Amino acid sequence: MVFTFAAFCYMLALLLTAALIFFAIWHIIAFDELKTDYKNPMDQCNTLNPLVLPEYLIHAFFCVMFLCAAEWLTLGLNMPLLAYHIWRYMSRPMMSGPGLYDPTTIMNADILAYCQKEGWCKLAFYLLAFFYYLYGMIYVLVSS
Amino acid sequence: MITGHQECAVPKEVYHKGPQVKEGMQYGEYVNNQASSAPTPLSSTSDDEEEEEEDEEAGIDSSSTTSSASPVPNSYDALEGGSYPDMLSSAASSPAPEPTPDPDPGPAPASTPVAPQPSKMAKPFGYGYPILQPGYQNATAPLNSGVQPSSTVYSGFQQYPQQYPGMNQLSSSLGGLSLQSSPQPESLRPINLTQERNILPVTPVLAPVPNLNLELKKLNCSPDSFRCTLTNIPQTQALLNKAKLPLGLLLHPFRDLTQLPVITSNTIVRCRSCRTYINPFVSFIDQRRWKCNLCYRVNDVPEEFMYNPLTRSYGEPHKRPEVQNSTVEFIASSDYMLRPPQPAVYLFVLDVSHNAVEAGYLTVLSQSLLENLDKLPGDSRTRIGFMTFDSTIHFYNLQEGLSQPQMLIVSDVDDVFLPTPDSLLVNLYESKELIKDLLNALPNMFTNTRETHSALGPALQAAFKLMSPTGGRVSVFQTQLPSLGAGLLQSREDPNQRSSTKVVQHLGPATDFYKKLALDCSGQQTAVDLFLLSSQYSDLASLACMSKYSAGCIYYYPSFHCAHNPSQAEKLQKDLKRYLTRKIGFEAVMRIRCTKGLSMHTFHGNFFVRSTDLLSLANINPDAGFAVQLSIEESLTDTSLVCFQTALLYTSSKGERRIRVHTLCLPVVSSLADVYAGVDVQAAICLLANMAVDRSVSSSLSDARDALVNAVVDSLSAYGSTISNLQHSALIAPSSLKLFPLYVLALLKQKAFRTGTSTRLDDRVYAMCQIKSQPLVHLMKMIHPNLYRIDRLTDEGAVHVNDRVVPQPPLQKLSAEKLTREGAFLMDCGSAFYIWIGKGCDNNFIEDVLGCPNFASIPQKMTYLPELDTLSSERARSFITWLRDGRPLSPILHVVKDESPAKTEFFQHLIEDRTEAAFSYYEFLLHVQQQICK
After folding, report:
1. Complex ipTM, two decimals?
2. How close are the terminal C-alpha atoms of chain A, in Å?
3. What percent of chain B has pLDDT above 70?
4. Among the listed ranges A35-39, B14-18, B728-732, which one has the minimum average pLDDT value?
5. How near does any CA of chain B get to the CA of A141, in Å?
6. Other CB atoms closer than 10 Å to residue B181's CB: what's the count?
7. CA–CA separation, A116 vs A118, rounded Å?
8. How far is CA B628 from CA A50, A111, B247, B610, in A?
9. What is the pTM of this model?
10. Searching chain A, which residue's CA lies closest to the CA of residue B59?
11. Which H/E stretch holds residue B804?
12. What average pLDDT does range B311-322 have in this prediction?
């Protein structure tokens, strides 16, 4: 059992995915609050927008790590989400600061529903990924 | 340091930050001190206060942030009876000069334009829904059947003959007799669109009347204020999806009303759980309890409510004005305030760059302001201020006691500050002389300016700083692309692409500067109204954001020039008169509630959406319209009626906090045929237009156009599948939807959505802004203009308005086939009137109405009708005046000679005809039919 670079990548990804799970939960709660009128959309967008890029960068970061570690399958599993993130950020509304959410359109029922669904889907993905990384790490450690 | 190059009657002080560090620094400090010691009503706690206001509107169920500090009375038991001093002071407290129709859908007054003409679109009367939820228990009228035994009741009831369009002449009593034998309601009569040549009725299309029992019908909200696209609400979302029709509301909440019950009472009775205001559609379980019609909670009737101030009797809660009128206004107590009601505050921000001075709008504006200074809505606290800007920003110190206005110039546009925050917004009455001096001097102050730059962004930032302590209205006049400081814009329009049939780009904003500014303004209860007077591309798509999200309004005068384009100058002058003198509400919020099961989906209009059903409106004006898309979340099977209520909480210009409440009640149906029977085609088109604007901005114009065509195709094919026995080759529509394809074609040819015809980007964007913010009545004319033949006006069927006889010529369809060379035609496009004079037009008419001896001598540019003392001139003028009344935008009149180059303007509105780029009506029908058969 040797502690390889790949194993290190999986461990790192494990930790970072835990962080991403928190991001996703935060996202879901925030949009739920919006829907139930607890928060002003302006405040909510101001708190959510700074978190978008860190989340995307963390994800992109361990994708690059997997690339370096030549973990092709794991990388392949993460590619759709990476592509989605890039697409999502490219098609964001016109705004000067970082972020995705525009307080003037966020209360639109379609967008609100989309964001909520996005949150749940991401949470599911990150949870599955978390266990996959755990399995991947053990597998790498055992097989090497 | 004094700048010498500008000649000006006003002494100036120039403040430079930067090089003159010392002076600037001192100044900055001074400003800071001022700011901290100023007695501003809004301090850093403003955000929390915002929250609370929301809660007050929202009620107990909303947020948990309200602590004991919240003044909302949680218990109505504690409240006692009181007197009603101000009851029904309607005429005095809400004067409205326009002869707008009566809000009460009872007998229409003589001024109602449409009273004598029944509509083919209207819903039939006795067709029906057997059991309706009782309006209130004590009512004695029969609730189950729409037909009452006594025929005298119906004498004034105009819906009666509407079932039989072919029998309009039939007396109403006869119509009543044959009612029961009708096998199918008129609105469901199938019509073969491709064979019906004259689809457009000759009388204006009326809103269909919801199929309710007579009692509720009488009480229901006027369709001018509140309309729903489907007057029969489908029971489930599945049924709605099957019908393929949009469900939504069209609102005109702050309309000028001639009669409005105003209620002053200590307790405003509201449902304790959903905070609905008591309305005509609640049911009284007994004397002491009422059941909310939106959430079905049973509430207590407060003691005070038992006394009826109208009849001065006790124990008749159902006779109170709140329960007798679906549009009422409450004078709100201090519970509905977070700060003392703000005074009316008006700030004018004026572009004085070379371009603006050249266009000469300052003369028109100063003149209008001088004339209307005393008519500005407000009380003794009214404040006013002026700012001008080119590459620098100029403030005007108008403090009482000065001998003449003092101009203060701030040249640092990167970091704007207010030189003397206290004396820039001054009391209108105390400083009236100074204001008049300034307005008299203003048009000539900048005549020799060479400054071509425009620092609009910094000027707006300064205006925001100036307004934020109080809130109010900022009117911005801009004549070119902003070129300096924050918010500068680049030209994005490619003139060669104007008539492209492919992609239309740049419909969205280029920067979010104006949006952010608008949101900040909205937070401080400030609305920004934009007047764009520009001859060149000015990126309205970006600039409009400043008004869109701050609940302002947008006016656009393309190629404005005082001397070269006098008709535009006249239009500006008239628009300004209306703008300056119309009613205004400050620091407003509007909440829309609906029966449990329905929910708001998307809002359209100028506002900021603060929560799922709350719109934040810094200002509200009588010309603002709104649209709301609805969705059905839960099945409505256990109810037969649904209600919608809008509550508009605002501060009047007199400093009173008021709540205007409209309630609309509609029946629920379970069959697809009934849904089609209740379609309000005009409302549906307006909602679709709003949705299409959103689609063009978020996706693309061609997507939006496809969606519009699909709306027709889907709804007609869905209807076609419900009727089995008919020929499949024909294009069949129910009578209620017969105008749907025509209106959609009109939309496709409207400036906002047309392709292939040269359209300037700003014109297109402006048309889109109008679609979003105009109320239904005005929007319909923009979409489908009305065409009348006016060379043979008669008094037949004329209506009398204020002792004037107004002829009512029949509507003509918008096609060149209706234009005869021998006639003269008037087209009413909402924002413009065209009078087309045929070549062979009767010389008598030309002489009597236009004051020219013959056709050849009519001038090319004629924008008014001379006041001639002839019968036909009088008729024509009174008809045009009648059409003009109550318009937010004063229409310009163009007299268009056949053969003159201006006639293309006129002919492009003939939407039933074929153009190089678009279908004719018949071709469009064939196209739709093809799509259905696919």
Report:
1. 0.90
2. 6
3. 79
4. B14-18
5. 49
6. 6
7. 5
8. 31, 16, 9, 15
9. 0.82
10. A37
11. strand B804-806
12. 82
